[in-house]
Amino acid sequence: TADPLVLFMPSGKRGHFPVGTSVLEAARTLGVYVESVCGGRATCGRCQIEVQEGQFAKHGITSSNDHISPVGPKEKRYAEVRTIPQGRRLSCSATIQGDLVVDVPQDAVVNAQVVRKAASDRVIERNPAVHLCYVEVDEPDMHKPLGDLDRMKVMLERDWGYTDLQIEPYLLAQAQKILRKENFTVTAAIHRDSVTSRPTVIALWPGLHNEAYGIACDIGSTTIAMHLVSLLSGRIVASSGASNPQIRFGEDLMSRVSYVMMNPDGREAMTKAVRQAVSELVDQVCASGGVARTDILDAVFVANPIMHHLFLGIDPTELGQAPFALAVSGAISCKALDIELSLNPGARTYLLPCIAGHVGADAAGATLSEGPHRQDKMMLMVDVGTNAEIVLGNRERTVAASSPTGPAFEGAEISCGQRAAPGAIERVRIDPETLEPRFKVIGVEQWSDEDGFTEAAEKTGITGICGSAIIEVVAEMYLSGVISADGVVDGAMAAKSPRILENGRTFSYLLHDGAQKITVTQNDVRAIQLAKAALYAGIKLLMEKLEVETVDTIRFAGAFGSFIDPKYAMVLGLIPDCELSEVKAVGNAAGTGALMALLNRDHRREIEDTVTRIEKIETALEPHFQQLFIDAMALPNKVDPFPKLAS
Ligand code: FES
Q1: Which of 37, 243, 362, 625 lies deepest, with the highest CB count within 10 Å?
Q2: 47 lines ligand 1 (CB under 6 A)
C-alpha cells in the first residue's frame, strides 16, 4: 500500500511519507516553513503544529489524531517545563502514522488593529532572513586540532545543512568563552538574505537561545512608525510611533532639502535627528514588548526617497531638482551598526528599493503589500502626501509616477486648515435646500446638530478643518450647488442663505459661526482644485500609458486615505470612476510591506524584481500632463465621465 498522504495548511503543499517520518521532516522535504531552533531535540517548542480532524473529500484524505504518534517521553518532558496549547504537537517528535492534514499555525497575522482599516486579516508566511540554530559541538581534542569555531561550523553543516558559513569578525574574540559556558552547546543566529547569498553567523549564545526579534519601520516625513516582531512566531509584540524630529528643519520634504543646501551641517544634523528618533522608538517597543535590544537581529525600513537618503546619511540635494537622481535606487542590505543603529552587534538591516526619484521605498512597500503585480485586475494605488505617489498596473505591466499635489490635502494652504487633532472638523454634510451644515469634530462624540454637542464642543473648542473634511466640505458645497463645476462660489446664493459671505470680489461659505469663525473661501476651493487636478492628471497619465479607460480597484495608502470617504474623493474627481466597493483605504501599506520583507526574505526578492520592472514616468517631462491637469480642474472633470458615481 502507498505511504500516508500528508497535506500542510495553509500552504496546501502535500506529499507521501513512510510511516514513522517526523512531521517536521515532512514539512522540510516539502519546503513548508516550520520554525525549529533546537534542531528537533524537543527543547525549543517552536515547531508546533496542529492536526485537523475529519474527512477532507476534496483532497481525498481522512485525517485524525490517531494518525499521528502519541505523545512520547521527549514531548512530555517539554510539556512539563513549558505548556503546549491544547491540540498542538511538537512536529519534531510527532511522527506520521496515517493520512494527515496538518495546520501550521501562523501567528504572523497582520490584523485590522495593526493596519488601520485593513480590508481583512492577512497571513504573512514566514521565512525570515535570520534563523536560530542550536548545535552541540564536539569538545576539543589534542589529536584533532580543529579550532572551536571550525568544529561549530561542522555541526552547523551536519545538523542544519549550512555550507560555506562565514563568521562575523566581532565574534572571534568571544566565541571560546561562549562555547565553554554551557558545555560546548551554542545557539548561532545565521543570516542569509537570499538562497544564493553566503550564510553568516551574526550572533552566538551559550546553550539554547530561544528569542529572536526584528523591527519593521516606516520613516515618513511627518511620522515614524515601528513594529517589533518575533522572528520565531511572526507575532507583533509591540508597535509604536513618533513624529519625525526633522520637522523642526522644515515642514515638508522640499524645505528639508533646501535646509541641507543652505546649511553646511544640515545633512548631518537631519541624519542624526532621524537616527536618534528611530533609536528611541526601538527603546519604546523593547520596553513595551519586554524584549532586550540584543535580541533584535534584523531591521527593515521603508521611506520616501528624501527620508531614505537622509537616514542613510546621503545628501538629498540631487533629489530637489531635475532629473531627480537617486544616489542609490536598489535595495540596501547592511549591518545595523553601519547606520549607527545599536541592536544586537551582528544585527542586519534591509531597506526596500526606491522606485524613482519621487517614488520611494515606501511606495515599494505599499506595492509589496497590495500587490498590483500579483493580480489580473487593474489596480490603482495612491499614497497622498505633499507628493502623491501613484502606482498603476497588474500582473502584466506596472507604471509609477509622482504628482506634486502640494500640502492642501493635509490642511496646509487652507485658510482654516489644520492637522487632524482634537478640535478639528472631520466630517461635513450640507443640506441642499437650506445650505445649513452639520459637522463632526474630532474629540466630540456628537454631530453638531445632536443634543449635548454645544457643551462638549465648548470643552474641546472648534479650531479648524482637517484634510479629510476639506475634501468633504468642498464636495458637499458642490453637491448642494454652493460651488459650480468650475469651482466658483456662487454669489447669487447669498440671497438664499446667510452662510454665503461676501469676501471682496469672491464669496465664502460659513461653516461654523463660533468663537472662531470657520469659513471655506474661494481660495481654499482653488487650492483643493489644484491639488486634486495634479493627482488626477498623474493618474490619468499612467492610465494613458497603459492604454486603459478604467481601473478595476483602487487602494488608498497612508493616513490621508484612511480618513477620506471614497465617495467624496470621487465626487471631486480625485480618483477616476470606479465601483465604490472597490475603493479601499489600506492604512500604512508601506509599513505592512516592511513587515512582509522582514518576515519573509522571498518578499525582498519579489519587490526587488517588481521594482526593476515598474516603468517610471516623470510627470514634469510629459507634455500632455498640462492638458490633463487643466481638464481635471473642473468638478469632477471636464472631459471624463463618472458613470459609477451616478448609479
Ligand atoms: Fe525544537 Fe521541535 S524543533 S521543539
Answers
A1: 362
A2: yes
